[in-house]
Every structure is written in C-alpha cells, then in structure tokens.
Specification:
This protein is of the alpha+beta class and 118 residues long. The chain has a single domain, classed as Protein of unknown function DUF952 (ADP-ribosylation fold, Alpha-Beta Barrel), CATH 3.20.170.20. The chain has three helices and nine strands; from the N terminus they run βαβαβαββββββ. Strands 1-4-8-9 form a four-stranded antiparallel beta sheet. The protein has a three-stranded antiparallel beta sheet with strand order 3-6-5. A two-stranded antiparallel ribbon has the order 2-7. β8 and β9 form a beta hairpin. The longest helix is centred in the middle third of the chain and has 11 residues. 25% of the residues are buried.
Length: 118
C-alpha cells in the first residue's frame, strides 16, 4: 500500500482543523465512523462521484505512516482497497495542501494555476 493518501476537504472545515490540530471528518465521514481517504489512482473518481459542482475545497496530501493502527485498507467501490482512518486526522500528517474546485462534470480545477492532477 502507498504511504500517501488524499482527502478532499471543505476549506472552512480544514481551516478549523488547523486551529484545532486535527480534522474530525466531514458529515459523511462522521456518519460512516471513519474518514474517507483516496490513493492517487482513486482520487479522480472520488472527485467526480462525491464532489462534482463543489467549490471552496482543499486537496490535502496525507502521510499515512504516523496514522498507525487507526488506518485500515478496506474494500469499497468495485472491491478496490481504500484507506479509511478510524480517528481524527492530525493536521501534522498533512504534507501538502492545494485549493481547488470540482466542476459539474467532476473535473478538478486547481486555484493555484498549476497543472491539474496528477
């Protein structure tokens, strides 16, 4: 499994997490009991399925190594293994943050003007 995963987060929620030191997850994450993460191969489809038409997002790159046993790789969409975090996400585990929006067609557009994903 990869040592890095990604989380699409509402900018205001991420700003609050930075102040608190940890991200407790979105409403969907909290309802499911874990924080949904995606690996590099899963991110584009995650954006398309769950974030189409959304603005004011952050793409947060997460170092998985410090998450320990709270991180589980579990079968989800089509049987693919997804990283699920059964604890708040420590802001210190974020190695990079990038502002973006996802258009109605599910394509990510980065606000910093740099080339898209990957």
């Amino acid at each position: 499994m990869s040592g890095v995963a990604y989380k699409l987060v509402d900018r205001a929620e991420w700003a609050a997490a930075q102040e608190a030191g940890a991200y407790a997850g979105s409403a969907v994450d909290r309802a499911d009991g874990y924080i949904h993460l995606s690996n590099a191969d899963q991110l584009v489809e995650t954006a398309r399925r769950h974030y189409a038409g959304r603005t004011g997002l952050m793409l947060v790159t997460v170092d998985l190594h410090p998450l320990g046993d709270a991180l589980k790789w579990e079968a989800s969409r089509g049987g693919a293994l997804f990283p699920h975090l059964y604890a708040p996400l420590p802001v210190a585990a974020a190695t990079h943050e990038r502002p973006l929006s996802v258009d109605a067609g599910g394509v990510m557009h980065f606000d910093d003007g740099a080339p898209g994903w990957p």
